[in-house]
Each structure stands twice: as C-alpha cells, then as structure tokens.
Amino acid sequence: MIDPPESALTGTLGPPEVMTPARLPVPAGLGRLLVLCVVFVCAACGLVYELELVALATYLVGDSVTQASVVLSVMVFAMGIGALLAKRLRCRAAVGFGAVEAGLALVGGSSAMALYACFAWFAQSRSALVAFSLVIGVLIGAEVPLLMTLIQRVRRQDAGGAVADLFAADYVGALVGGLAFPFLLLPSLGQLTGALVTGTVNDVAGGALVLWLFRRDLSRRARWSLLVANALVLALLATGVLLAAPFERAARRAVYGSAARVAVQTGIQEVVLTGGTGTGAGRERKGSGPPLELYLDGRLRVSGDTECRYHEALVHPAMAAGPHARVLVLGGGDGLAVREILRYRAVRSVTVVELDPGVLRLARTDPGLTRLNGHSLGDPRVHVVTADAFDWLRDRDVPGHRTAPYDVIVSDLPDPGITASTKLYSQEFYGLATRLLADRGRLVVHAGPPVARARAYWTVDATVRSVGLATDPYRMPGRPASFLGPDRSADPTPRPTGEPLTAGPSPGYWGFVLAARQRPRFGPAPDAPPPPVTREALRAARHGDLRDRIPGLPASTLMRPRYQD
C-alpha cells in the first residue's frame, strides 16, 4: 500500500505561507470576528456596485431586463475568472487582498461617474457597461479565496465550517447592501455620490483589515505600498465626491444643452425641464426662448413644439365619440391631457392617477409647465391621486374603494417598449380598466410609434381587443424625422404612400388605439371646442393605420410580456 502524502492527510494544500498561522495583535477569536465583519462590508459594497450599474444602465440605455441580464451574467462569469486568478495570490493573501480591495474600491466607486461620462460626452455606454461589469466581477471573485485563506490562518477549522461562516457573512452583507441601495444610498446621495461613498467604505474596510490586523505579515515595502495605494484611492474618491455636483451639471449640459433649468431626483425618476422661457402655450407660444421640454429618466416626454398635436390626437377622438361627463386619466401628471379634456363644457369631473408626486409638483408650480398646461390641475373639477395606475385600478374592486364608472379613460403612459411600462400595457391592466368603463364608455391608449415599432404597436391593439373591447387604431403626424427620442417619439420614417402632404418636413407618426364595447365612432361632440383634429384627418389616420395591420399577434400579459419580442 502506498501512503498518501502528508498534505492530503492534513487536508492542507498550497504553499507554506498558506499554512502558517497569522501573527495577530488580538486574540484569534476576535481576529476571526473582524475578518467576518470585513467579509460582511465587502459583500454589501459589491452588491451596491452591481445594482448601481444595473440602475444607471437602465436609465441611460433603457430596457431594464436586458441591462440586468448583461450586468449580472458578465459579473458572475468574471467572478469565476477572478477566483481562478486569486489562486496565484494565496501565497501572499494579505497583500493580495489589500490590493484587490483598493482596486475594487476605485473601479466600483468611480464606475457610475465614468459610465455617465461615456454616455454624456461620447454617446456610448454599452461597451463601458460591459467593461466595468467584467473588471468589478473579476475583483469580487478574487475576494473569497483570499478571505478563505486569511480566516484559516487566523484559526484553523474544518473547510466546511469555514466556508459556512464565510458565506453566511457574505450573504448577510449582500442583503444589507441590496436594501441600502434603493432605500438609503439612492434617495439620500444619488447614483454618483452613492457609488463614491460605497467605494470609500470598501477601501477603508479592506485597508484596515490588512494594514492593522495582518500588519505583521507584511514586509516594510508591502506595508508602505498598500498604505500609499489606499491613501491615493481615498483621495481620488473624496475628490469625486466634491466634484460630483459640478460634474453632473456639466454632463447634463452635454446631454440636454445649456437650456436645462430644472433637474430633480424625485425618488422615482430623474425629472429635467429645459426651455419654456417664452410666453404662451403650444401653438400660441411667443418669445425667443427655446420651447419647454420635459425629460423623465433621460427620455423626452413633452416638447412644447409638438405637445398640442400629441394631446389633441390622444384626447379629442375619445371625447367626441360619446358622453364625457366623467373622465379618468392614467398617467398624465404634466396636466397637458387634462387641459384638452377641460375644453369640453360637459365635463363634470376628471380623476388623474399619477405615480410621481414630483411631476405633479412641477406641473402645479413651474412657470413654463403651468403656462403650457393652463393651470389645469388647479381646476376644481380635477381630482389628483398619487398612486401606481395598476394598483389603483385593482383597488377599485375592494369594498370601500369602488367608484362610479367613467365615460372616458385616457391612458397617457410611457411607450410600451420601456420595460417598466409593460405591466401598464398588459391584458390584466386593460381588464381592470374595462371594469371602470360605462356602457358607452371609451378607452384611448397611447401605443407608441406605429411604423418604427410596428409589432409593439399592433400588440397593444391585440391586447386591448383580448379583454372584449372593439378597437379603432389610428395614427397622427408627429415631429419631423430629425427628432430622436426613446419615448413619445414619432416614427423617423418617410410618409406612407397615400398620406396627404403637409407643410414642412416629412413627419413621423404617433400611434393610438381607441376602444369601446361597441366599435367607437369618430365625430364631433355637441360641446366640442373648435376642431383641432378634423374628421378628414381622422379618417385618413384610420385608413393609413389599417393598411399596415399585423394580424395574429398574441396579447401581452404580466407573465408573458410581448413588447420586447
């Protein structure tokens, strides 16, 4: 029989230093506790870096599902690479861990600022997103093997017990980091400063562990090198914190131009207002200032040059097709759809359900926006509710919350192609809305560009029809083809054959779906204002749309969203 080597009997593999007990300034039990505390802190910081990248990429690029998938999959892959690379550092685990934490603190802490800079000045963030995910993943992956070596050098124990303790601290830290990001860091510090502060905490924790607890394992040269590296990282992160506000202003100017005059983080989204310094509203705007533009999370939602045409096309066909004493607006916190609704004398009440109180506050107080919406939210007939539209509709079935049916429901929500909005274009959402429709009631939906995203547009139509409503889709000319924007944008496409010519550049198109229990009719109401949208224009809009219908599309549901297909 051949005897196994001694290392196999003892369960220890690796270079001699890995097996040497550490010379600590504290008892082994306390030293082990301090290592686990650092594991906890590093895990929390690592998860914050991941969530920061996902959140910022979703804001800059859109499509949160894709961005989360890219970040997480690249990071997990990179963590495996980092774990393999860390094997070469186990012989000098303390120095290796100190270097890894300094690098991770610098890269992770500055990642949000660097990613935003790539987006603002180079109009490119996807490649930077992948690069940061890869580097951060490699550094996070290198932590666990090095920490495992350090904790075993503090006090020997069986491998299973050491792994259990290490992972327990790691998972609890990840929980704290995951909760701290949305509930503490993001609302109180914002994305840029939050990442920099996280990097600072990461650097202090890693540096303190190595430079104090394991200082006797370090050569004089290694100690000074780590001390200088950590001090330099802290100085860079502190400089980033001090420059975060002017950097953000400069980046915002690069994205929105010098006209950006309001920028607030509401807790739900970033709201930016540009322009709007002239007088008047819509077509009647006067003055030399640029038109007002409202951006939500970087996406254009309102342009003073074209919002009249958009809101007239959204509101008037539904209002003119039957009774309209009671109206429900889902979204529309800017007050512009409400302005058009209040032009009808027969309107008795308007309920607005808007998620973001910050948008409502600006719609009531900002001089440019109130000039544009005509102070519509201050009208005594208007009742504003701050709530998620889906949850509010669902609560109408609860005793004590039931309400009388509505003659018109206006769904003035972001494009269905934005991942966060898909539940507001689902079969379940339209089913809830249908319950609140009066017998002759109408539902109108902003359905996105009908040509550039034709499949998504006709999926909205199919989803509305799936809840038993008859639909009449239509499109109206929007902004010229030079307009580029991911939300409420018109198609940057040539005019379809047969469309009437209009003055100015070839327009794009906004898409809408009008629905009712019986097929809705298009025509003027007795109390209608001077017709902003003529019957001939609507007829042309309907005919142009029906020619391009995509048949046989399935409905979009909560469990099977179809707008990303």
Automatic annotation (TrEMBL):
InterPro entries: MFS_trans_sf, PABS, PABS_CS, SAM-dependent_MTases_sf, Spermi_synthase. It comes from the Bacteria. It catalyses: S-adenosyl 3-(methylsulfanyl)propylamine + putrescine = S-methyl-5'-thioadenosine + spermidine + H(+). Residues 235-517 form the PABS domain. The active site is at D412. It is an enzyme of class 2 (transferase). S-methyl-5'-thioadenosine binds at Q269, E354, D388, A389. CDD domains: AdoMet_MTases. The keyword DNA-binding does not apply. It is a multi-pass membrane protein. The keyword Cell wall biogenesis/degradation does not apply. One of its GO terms (molecular function) is spermidine synthase activity. Pathway: Amine and polyamine biosynthesis; spermidine biosynthesis; spermidine from putrescine: step 1/1. Residues 478-506, 520-565 are annotated as: Disordered. Spermidine binds at H311, D334. It is found in: Cell membrane. Its EC number is 2.5.1.16. Keywords: Cell membrane, Membrane, Polyamine biosynthesis, Spermidine biosynthesis, Transferase, Transmembrane, Transmembrane helix. The chain crosses the membrane at residues 33-61, 67-86, 98-122, 128-151, 163-186, 192-214, 226-247. Residues 536-550 have a biased composition (Basic and acidic residues). Catalyzes the irreversible transfer of a propylamine group from the amino donor S-adenosylmethioninamine (decarboxy-AdoMet) to putrescine (1,4-diaminobutane) to yield spermidine. HAMAP family: Spermidine_synth. Homodimer or homotetramer. Belongs to the spermidine/spermine synthase family. This is Polyamine aminopropyltransferase. It comes from Streptomyces endophytica.
